[in-house]
């Protein structure tokens, strides 16, 4: 397997571009109520990320939101569609009575997913190369691609790439999430459409089976990555918008600890050894990531949807992602509780602390 080497520390940023787009996102009830039983890893519907949140480890799942259908009518507006928002995959049109309604979007009307962006410091690419936990994610404003691209900021080599393609649960690559949602809309009402979800960012690819040994290494590597993400955010937090004061206080202790294992290309033995020796440094990063994901609602449980921002970019890079999170849900209730999450990362029961989820 092509295990990511840890030679290059890369940070990338996933964000959805466009405030207008973000502004159109609003929460609603999930379409799916029942637990999803497909074999394919799925990304459930109905997810919205907090705007401007400084979470490096997630993509804004506005991109994955399939359930928006907000109707705000303004009778005075000349164009009835102006204030008539449609869920993803639909656009507003007026009928003969000038009444706005949402109809399936024509995929050809989706923003072009090729071309150069002169106004962003990102280069257009359809593929992002071998990555994984040797890549750190960093939040805005380090790179921004126009919607419907996801931007990946690679910090060590200081470049940013834009990726528009997405892979859906039918293992079909769509030019962008816009194209995907337009297609899904055309299947509305069918079982096939109901079961179709975005799975991950990037073109569909062959994902190697995750071997048991690799699964065991996964938390080691992810834990180290989480810690390094936090430390990097701390270092780069010049404008004080990456971490909150409370978070900074916690990370400061890690950052200033001389015994801290620096980010780098470490063997699994060293990672394991460091976890034993510097166990305390890993407690907060694990809690912090949970808090970043547990937003809709904030209830101490991660749904499939809440997990999506972390899974979607990670799946094509880290082939154990799906298995790891499945296993994390040790009681198989489709939700990962804080206790389950902490356990997955080797945090002892007595160190699981709700108050650290800040
Ligand atoms: C999904 O598609 C990719 C690319 O076409 C292919 O390599 C891979 O084997 C497919 N995976 C499955 C599970 O069919």
TrEMBL record:
PROSITE patterns in UniProt: EF_HAND_1, KAZAL_2, OSTEONECTIN_1, OSTEONECTIN_2
Official protein name in the record: Secreted protein, acidic, cysteine-rich (osteonectin)
Organism: Esox lucius (Northern pike)
Transcription among keywords: no
Principal location: secreted
Gene Ontology cellular-component annotations: extracellular space
Domain Kazal-like stretches: 166-206
Family: Belongs to the SPARC family.
Lineage, opening ranks: Eukaryota, Metazoa, Chordata, Craniata, Vertebrata
SUPFAM superfamilies named among the record's database cross-references: EF-hand, EGF/Laminin, Kazal-type serine protease inhibitors
UniProt GO MF annotations: calcium ion binding; collagen binding; extracellular matrix binding
Subcellular location field: Secreted, Extracellular space, Extracellular matrix
PANTHER family per record: SPARC (PTHR13866:SF26), SPARC OSTEONECTIN (PTHR13866)
UniProt-listed SMART domains: FOLN, KAZAL
Pfam annotation, one family: SPARC_Ca_bdg
Record InterPro entries: EF-hand-dom_pair (IPR011992), EF_Hand_1_Ca_BS (IPR018247), Fol_N (IPR003645), Follistatin/Osteonectin_EGF (IPR015369), Kazal_dom (IPR002350), Kazal_dom_sf (IPR036058), Osteonectin_CS (IPR001999), SPARC/Testican_Ca-bd-dom (IPR019577)
UniProt entry tagged with the keyword Signal: yes
């Amino acid at each position: 397997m092509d295990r990511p080497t840890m030679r290059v520390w890369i940070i990338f940023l996933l964000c959805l571009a466009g405030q207008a787009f973000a502004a159109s996102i609003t929460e609603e009830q999930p379409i799916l109520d029942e637990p999803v039983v497909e074999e394919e890893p799925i990304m459930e519907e109905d997810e919205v990320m907090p705007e401007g949140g400084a979470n490096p480890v997630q993509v804004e799942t506005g991109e994955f939101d399939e359930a928006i259908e907000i109707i705000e009518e303004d009778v005075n507006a000349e164009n009835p569609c102006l204030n008539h928002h449609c869920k993803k995959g639909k656009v507003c049109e007026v009928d003969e009575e000038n009444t706005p309604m949402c109809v399936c979007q024509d995929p050809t009307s989706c923003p072009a997913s090729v071309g150069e962006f002169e106004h962003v410091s990102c280069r257009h690419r359809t593929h992002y190369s071998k990555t994984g936990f040797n890549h750190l994610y960093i939040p805005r404003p380090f790179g921004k691609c126009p919607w419907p691209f996801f931007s990946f900021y690679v910090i060590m080599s200081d470049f940013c790439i834009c990726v528009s393609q997405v892979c859906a649960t039918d293992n079909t690559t769509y030019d962008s999430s816009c194209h995907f949602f337009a297609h899904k809309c055309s299947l509305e009402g069918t079982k096939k459409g109901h079961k179709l979800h975005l799975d991950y960012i990037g073109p569909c690819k062959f994902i190697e089976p995750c071997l048991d040994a690799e699964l065991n290494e996964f938390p080691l590597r992810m834990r180290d990555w989480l810690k390094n993400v936090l430390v990097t955010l701390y270092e780069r937090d010049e404008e004080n918008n990456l971490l909150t004061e409370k978070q900074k206080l916690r990370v400061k202790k890690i950052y200033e600890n001389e015994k801290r294992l620096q980010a780098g290309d470490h063997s699994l033995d060293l990672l394991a050894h460091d976890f034993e020796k510097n166990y305390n440094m890993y407690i907060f990063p694990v809690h912090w990531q949970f808090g970043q994901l547990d937003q809709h609602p904030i209830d101490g449980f991660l749904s499939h949807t809440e997990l999506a921002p972390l899974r979607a970019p990670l799946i094509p890079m880290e082939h154990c992602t799906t298995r790891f999170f499945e296993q994390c849900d040790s009681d198989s209730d489709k939700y990962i509780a804080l206790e389950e999450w902490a356990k997955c990362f080797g945090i002892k029961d007595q160190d699981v602390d709700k108050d650290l989820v800040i």
